[in-house]
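Re: that backbone. Tokens:
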């Protein structure tokens, strides 16, 4: 793993947590979303931009994920688009 990828992930992760708190979500919901992002990040070696590209390409050909996981992915991807 490149340290730049992990540093970018950490910055986006902190921003994501901040946005979740500002939305007024319950602490248990924030914890669940944060845990999901950490697991997804670890799976993709903290390069979620690669995951984003794969997600977009497969989105039209596969059925939608469960609603909760879809919300997590979409909220993370919205952060990426704001950069």
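Recovered sequence:
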């Amino acid at each position: 793993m490149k340290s730049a990828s992990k540093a970018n992930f950490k910055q986006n992760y902190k921003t994501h947590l901040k946005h979740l708190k500002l939305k007024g979500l319950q602490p248990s919901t924030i914890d669940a979303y944060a845990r999901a992002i950490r697991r997804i990040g670890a799976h993709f070696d903290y390069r979620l931009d690669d995951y984003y590209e794969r997600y977009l390409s497969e989105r039209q050909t596969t059925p939608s994920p469960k609603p909760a996981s879809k919300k997590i992915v979409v909220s993370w991807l919205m952060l990426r688009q704001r950069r």
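Residues 37 and 73 are 8 Å apart (CA to CA). The chain has a mean pLDDT of 78.
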